[in-house]
Amino acid sequence: MTMNPSRRTFFTTGIGATLAATLAVPTAFSFLGRNALAQEGGAAPMKLRIAVIGCGGRGTGAMFNAIEAGKSSGYEVEVVALGDLFLERAARANEGLVKAGHHEVSAQSVFTGFDAYKQVCASNCDLVILATPPGFRSIHFAAAVDAHKHVFTEKPVAVDGPGIRRFLAAAAKSKELGLKVVAGTQRRHEQCYIEAMARIHGGDIGKVMAARCYWNMGSLWNVAPDASKTDVENQVRNWLYHAWLSGDHIVEQHVHQLDVMQWVMQADPMLVRGVGGRQSRTDTQLYGHIFDHFGLEYVYPNDRFVLSMCRQQDGTDGKVEELITGSEGTASLQSGAASITGPKPWRFGGKQTGPYLQEHIDLQNAIRNNLPVNEGEQVAKSTLVAIMGRMAAYSGKEVTWEQALHSQEELMPESVEFGSRPQAPVAIPGKSG
To answer: pLDDT tens for residues 200-216?
Structure first.
């Protein structure tokens, strides 16, 4: 079973665009018009039809966040299609809907296999949630945009330069179409971060000079290989530990902190240098070939820099935080807390909705009120920051922004099917490309 045509074929044939044309998928404008008519004369609440591509823990979580967000945005949210590579995951998501008292998705609208995303995008949904392993993200996003769907996309949005370029092209098209796109970089929707960033950019810590960011923790889940399954299925089920699917943990997880750094600096890094490796997770059967620690220095315009550290090693100290140093003070940012020390001290003391919910409220409000909300380019650039960091650590070489953006290295294969796939070797700095 193929995942999709090759990247070259996808660009030249425009599969998603053809689907949109032949199926007469409603545009963002017609969707807004339909809902406006539904509200005339005090009718029932407007309906928002959503679909999910990737029904694992994060996709199911986002699905219920979207349903809950309807209480604030004024929508009656209905899940109309589910798609996943594995039937049991789609079925589990459907069972969760029923147990929570929501409508069951009909069997005709539950799709499985590598091509399930095409069928979901061709459904009568208004909004698509993208939550598969990140290697597939740019392919699925391009298809959703071609089908004129609003999108909630989990982060990161690619694992290599070609994937970033595809995502950026689709993001530009989504803006032209007036589609609303929100990404799972939820700190952008967290009130303490929003208030702190307004103060930082307003000069409360003076001129931003440098910053540090951390995501240090223990191990995450893993799925041991099953001899009865193919290499590809085993790797997809254990996707965190294979860079063609996750991008390595600096891309899959640490992208959150690097996104905050982009927000702080309001610019893209010129280059990155650093180190990384694996010391504690050496079992390739359980942990694939990815690193378990990275330490990087990003050089930004105007003689500014960011020090980045992330690790996943059991028994080590945890730290998830961003620290911004200005000429007149320092800001400390964590999920749920933010403060500034210096001549203009401040500490967040307000209330906030959980950011995993707030991002869906913001997206739905943008759809309902036709607000110009589109985070596609923003999240693609933050993902590229993480990718260039991985490239620098794997190779032991400095990597510039332009080198990463225009890299021809493709971690995602041109097509995927259940079968043999040798595991990638562990990168050796100085020897790996």
So the answer is: 999 999 999 999 999 99
